[in-house]
Amino acid sequence: MAAERFEIAIAGGGPAGIACAAVLAQAGVPGLLIDEHPRLGGPGLRDAAGAFSPFAPAWARTVRAIRSLKKEALTVLPRTGLIGIEPGPRLLLAPEEGGLREIACRRLVIATGARERFLPFPGWTLPGVIATGAVQMLLKQGILPAADFVVGGAGPFLLAVAADIVRRGGRVRALANESRLADLLPPPGLLAGQGVKILDGLLRTLRVLVSGTRIAHGTRLLEARGAGRLQAVVTARVDKSGRHLPGTERVVPAALLAMGFGFTANIEPAQLAGCPLFFEDTLGGWLVQTDESLRTGVEGIYAAGEVTGVGGAEKSLLEGRLAGLAILEEMGRLDAAGRGEITRLQRKRKALLSFGRWFNRPSRFAAACRTNWFASLPDELTICRCEEVRLRDIRRTLAAGCRTPAGIKKATRCGMGVCQGNTCKGILQEVVAALTGGPPGGFPPPSVRAPLRPVDLGLLGGDTV
Amino acid sequence: MSGRRLPYPARGAPVAIRLNGRPVTAFAGETVFAVLCHEGVFALRRGGPGRPPRGALCGMGVCQECRVTIDGTPDRRACMTLVAEGMEIETDGR
Predict the structure, then answer these.
(1) Of the candidates A73, A416, B23, B73, which lies 20 to 30 Å from A283 by C-alpha distance?
(2) SS (H, E, C) A69-112
(3) Within chain A, which residue ranges are assigned CATH 3.50.50.60?
(4) Nearest to A364 by CA among A424, A425, A434
(5) How far is Cα A385 from Cα A182, in angstroms, rounded to an integer?
(6) How close, in Å, is residue A160 to chain B by CA atoms?
(7) What distance in Å separates the CA atoms of residue A40 and residue A14, rounded to the nearest whole number?
(8) What is the assigned CATH class of domain A4-115+264-359?
(9) Residues in chain A closer than 8 A to B84 (CB atoms)
(10) B42 interfaces chain A, CB cutoff of 8 Å
C-alpha cells in the first residue's frame, strides 16, 4: 500500500486538534486532521449549538476559523480510526466505510483526548447505567433520554451534568458524590484565574439545589438495581476511611443513572508511538510527557490537550494552538509576535494545569480509603465487561501469587476483550493496587499493540494491504 | 418511548428509519445512540453468563457496549454513527 504524504498529521478532532489545525492551515501548511466521529468537536464541544458551556464562544471562534480556511490547506478525515503508528511517523487509518489508508507525515500531533473513568459497583452493567458524559452529549443533541435520573460517582463534573439535566427539564432524584464537599471546593488561588468556570459551577449548584435535588457528598453508589434495565439506585454514606455506613442506605427509583468518576487520558496512540509517559493521579493518571512546547520524547511527535493532563476544553484549545505555533517556529515560519504568543500561552497553560489538578483530585482517593472500598465489593462483581471477568477471578489470581495487573490480565483475560481494555484496564490497576496495598501508579500501563480499534481481520491480512 | 426531544436550534431534517422493524422518525445529525435513547431502547446486546442484556456505557466510542446491527452490518457503534434516510437498526438486547 502506497502511503499518502502530509507535512503534518493531527490525530483527534477535538478542541486541541482543531485549534492546532487552524493555526497551521492559516499559515498555509498542508495538514491532515483525522477523527473517529462523523462530526468534529470531540465529546465535550461537539453540538456546540446545544452547549451550555462558558467556552462555547471560544469554540465557535475556532469553528469559524476552520470554516474560513482554504480547502487546500487542510484535509479532514472524519469517521476514521487511527489503528497504528509506526516510526516515521507513519499512520495506519481505518475509515468507517472500509479499507485501510497509510499516511506518512513529517510531524504528528497526538490530540486524542480523554475518556470517562469508571469504577465498578454491583449492577453497573445494567442497561440504563450510562456515563455522565454520554448524558451530557444527548442533552446537547436536544434529547432528554428519561424523566428521572440519579447522578453519581465522584468529582465536580457530576454537578455540571446534574445542572444540565435539570435545565433541560429532567428530574435528578439524587446526586451521590463519593467526594467530600471540602475536597470539591476550589482553593482561593484558582478563584482569581479561573473565575468564569468557578462562577459557572456556583450557578449550576444553585440550579440543582433550587430544583429540589438531594445533593449528598461522601455518598457511594452501592448498587444499581433492576430486571433487565435500571429501576433503582442504592446509595449509602461512607466514612473517611472508605467504609460504607450501615443504616444510611437509600433506595432511589430512577430510569437512568448518569455515572462517572472523573476522566483519564487516551494515551494509547502515544504509547504505541513510543512516547515516554508519566503518572500524575491528579492530572488523570498516565499521561504523555512533553516539554513546554508540547514536544514528546519522540522526534517529530507532539501531544496536545487532555493527553498531557486532563484539564478541560479551555486547556485543550490553548495547547492545540501552542503546538501549532511551536511547529511553525521549528519550521522557521513564525514572526516575533508569534513567538511572544508562545511565551504567553506557556504561562497560561500553567494556570490551566492547576485547574486540572483541582478538577481531578476529588475523584482520586487515598490508598487506605480505596483498599477498604474495594475490599467490600462482592466476588461476583463484573470487572471486565467484554470478557466477563469477575472480581472473584482477580482475587483468586492474586491469592495464587500473581501480583501485577499484567500477570492477572494474562491469567484471567481481564482487559483482552473487544474494547481492548480501555474500559477496565484502569480499574484493574486500581483494584490490584488497593488489594495489594501498592500505589495506583506503581504499575506501568498495560502495553498496547496495533490495531488500536477492532478491525475486520480480513483487512489486515487481505488483498487491500 | 422514554425520552423526548427538546427545543434545539440545530436540529436537522426528519429522517425515516426502521428500528427493530418498526418505523421511527429521527433527525439528521442525530447519532443512532441518541435515537435509541429517545425510543427508550437501552438494552442493545446480550453478554455474559445467562446472557443478560447490556446497554451503552461511555457514549464516546471507547467501551464498545453500544454495538448494534446497522443495514445488515453487525457490531457498528451506535454512538459513532449518524442516522441516515432508510437506515435499518437491529438490537440484540430484547
Answers:
(1) A416
(2) CCHHHEEEECCEEEEEEECCCEEEEEECCCCCEEEEEEEEEECC
(3) 4-115+264-359, 120-260
(4) A434
(5) 34
(6) 17
(7) 6
(8) alpha beta
(9) none
(10) yes
Q: Smallest CA–CA separation between B92 and chain A, in Å?
A: 12
465 residues of chain A, pLDDT tens digit each:
789 999 999 999 999 999 999 999 989 998 999 999 999 889 888 877 666 666 677 777 777 777 777 677 899 999 999 999 999 999 999 999 889 999 999 999 999 999 999 999 999 999 999 999 999 999 999 999 999 999 999 999 999 999 999 999 999 999 999 999 999 988 887 877 777 888 888 888 899 999 999 999 999 999 999 999 999 999 999 999 999 999 999 999 999 999 999 999 999 999 999 999 999 999 999 999 999 999 999 999 999 999 999 999 999 999 999 999 999 999 999 999 999 999 999 999 999 999 999 999 999 998 899 999 999 999 999 999 999 999 999 999 999 999 999 999 999 999 999 999 999 999 999 999 999 988 878 899 989 999 999 887 776 665 443
Residue of chain B minimizing CA distance to A424: B63
Q: How far is B90 from chain A (nearest CA, A)?
A: 16
Tally DSSP H helices, then E strands, for chain A.
16, 22
Do the Cβ atoms of B54 and A385 come within 8 Å?
A: yes
> Where exactly does CATH 1.10.10.1100 map onto chain A?
367-442
The topology under which CATH files domain A367-442 is Arc Repressor Mutant, subunit A (1.10.10)
CATH of domain A120-260: 3.50.50.60
Amino acid B63 reads C
Question: ∠ CA(A276), CA(A280), CA(A284), 5° rounding?
Answer: 100
